[in-house]
Write a structure and sequence with these properties.
Elements lengths: L5 H4 L1 H7 L1 H8 L3 H7 L14 E8 L5 E10 L5 H12 L13 E7 L4 E6 L23 E4 L5 E5 L11 E6 L1 H10 L4 E5 L6 E15 L4
Antiparallel strand pairs: 1-2, 1-9, 2-7, 3-4, 3-9, 4-6, 5-6, 5-7, 8-9
């Protein structure tokens, strides 16, 4: 679309949905493209209460949803991972204006298994290797949020997963009233993808759900 001139002829839609493509084609700077997007201001950085994910999507029925999911972080149980999340907030990694990074989104939902998986750029700085929990003893229950060591994969459990306790690092808990929004994501359209190494068939979202990350003083 950008190469076809839509950035000029359909500017409102394109600057909202595809600002990076417009920036690349028209020669705008990334900063200028971000300013043009009608989104909220740069995310708050007060993490004293916890953090919050801001998300929006269109449901299979066509309804537009905008939600806020709060996470109470457990710095006593997972100090390194929580520090990495705090750093991501301070650096604006997933701030509302950081539209071109592409590192903060959900891309997989598994309704039967009970999982929502995505990418939070920077959480992998907590270290570790795949298959081995890096720190903490908190068990994975419904509403637990955490990450897969060895990368930036963010996980939310929509069902209890004690089998993850030895492999994945829990960082905190989502308020049950906010889990209703997470449950809604399980109904979004997916398509199957077979992992090339593990041969697992995964339900990947046809449209990624991007999120912002900000301090959650009301957590």
């Amino acid at each position: 679309w950008a190469f076809g001139g839509e950035s000029e002829t359909n500017a409102g839609f394109m600057q909202q949905s595809c600002p990076c493509a417009c920036a690349a084609v028209t020669g705008q700077s990334t900063a200028a493209a971000a300013v043009a997007v009608a989104v909220a201001a740069v995310a708050a950085t007060d993490v004293s209460g916890g953090v919050a994910l801001g998300m929006s999507w269109t449901s299979p029925g066509g309804a537009h949803r905008t939600v806020r999911v709060r996470i109470t972080l457990d710095a006593a149980d997972a100090p390194k991972a929580v520090a990495a999340v705090h750093a991501a907030v301070r650096e604006g990694t997933c701030a509302a204006g950081a539209v071109c990074g592409g590192g903060c989104h959900f891309h997989r939902v598994e309704p039967e298994y009970g999982l929502v998986q995505g990418n939070l750029a920077g959480i992998g700085k907590a270290g570790g290797a795949f298959g081995k929990r890096t720190e903490g003893t908190a068990t994975w229950r419904r509403g637990t949020a955490g990450y897969i060591p060895g990368g930036d994969n963010l996980l939310i459990a929509t069902k209890a997963h004690p089998e993850w306790d030895a492999s994945f690092t829990a960082i905190g808990t989502i308020a049950e009233e906010d889990m209703a929004a997470v449950d809604e994501m399980l109904s979004l359209h997916t398509e199957p993808f077979v992992h090339p190494e593990y041969k697992t068939t995964m339900a990947m979202l046809k449209t990624k759900v991007k999120f912002t990350l900000e301090g959650g003083v009301d957590v």
